[in-house]
């Protein structure tokens, strides 16, 4: 009886190992899970050190489980119609619409309610309040918006700025490279 129990336990562990190993192999082969440092190719370094990084202009890239499309100003919005008044929505990943399609973001929903206006999605993942103010001064104020909506979360008051390294990986404030062995 003890021998049968040990065989069954061994088979259970072998089955679990094969099952989870197979899942991990499939995730790595399909690219659904990225291994190591990875930032979607949607960012570029800003000339303004207060802003640090922005979304690339005129792009259509797969990022955060959906396709992210930006206009000529690097906003996750459609083309700006000069004949319409503008509403700017400024913020971080909540405004940007982390994990949702372009048409599902908060500014896109606002656009449906105000079709006679341009509604600009000026949200960028990881931004804090100082970056948002600098982005407003640099890119939004020149558009002379009729209204500004600021969407923020408590962590936006942590004003330590993330940055893009030389491999275009978004790094947290204070990050230092180090060798890690697996």
Explain what you see:
By secondary structure, the chain is α/β, with parallel strands linked by helices. Helices cover 29% and strands 20% of the residues. The chain is built from 4 helices and 9 strands. The strands form 4 sheets. It has a 3-stranded parallel beta sheet with strand order 6-5-7, with helices on both faces. A hairpin with a 5-residue loop joins β8 and β9 (170-171). It is elongated. The chain starts with a helix and ends in an 11-residue tail after the last strand. The mean pLDDT is 89.
Taking the sheet with the most strands, its summary is: 3 strands, parallel
Query: Could you name the ranges where pLDDT drops below 50 across 5 or more consecutive residues?
Result: none
Helix/strand order: HEEEEEHHEHEEE
In whole angstroms, the N-to-C terminal distance is: 40 Å
Rg over alpha carbons: 22 Å
State the secondary-structure class.
alpha/beta
Question: If you average the pLDDT, what whole number results?
Answer: 89
Q: Helical element count?
A: 4
How do the strands of the widest beta sheet line up side by side?
6-5-7
Number of strands: 9
Helix content: 25-40%
Taken as a percent bin, the fraction of beta residues is 15-25%
> What overall form do the CA principal axes indicate?
elongated
């Amino acid at each position: 009886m003890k021998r049968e129990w040990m065989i069954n336990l061994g088979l259970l562990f072998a089955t679990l190992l094969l099952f989870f190993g197979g899942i991990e192999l499939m995730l790595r082969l399909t690219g659904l899970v990225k291994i190591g440092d990875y930032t979607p190719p949607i960012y570029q370094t800003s000339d303004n050190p207060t802003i640090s990084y922005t979304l690339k202009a005129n792009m259509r890239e797969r990022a955060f489980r959906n396709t992210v499309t930006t206009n000529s100003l690097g906003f996750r919005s459609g083309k700006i119609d000069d004949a319409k008044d503008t509403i700017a929505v400024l913020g971080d990943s909540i405004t940007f619409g982390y994990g949702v399609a372009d048409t599902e973001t908060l500014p896109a929903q606002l656009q449906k309610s105000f079709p006679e206006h341009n509604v600009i999605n000026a949200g960028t993942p990881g931004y804090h309040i100082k970056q948002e103010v600098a982005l407003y001064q640099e890119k939004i104020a020149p558009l002379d918006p009729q209204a500004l909506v600021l969407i923020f979360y408590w962590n936006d008051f942590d004003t330590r700025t993330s940055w893009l390294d030389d491999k275009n990986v978004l790094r947290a404030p204070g990050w230092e490279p180090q060798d890690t062995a697996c």
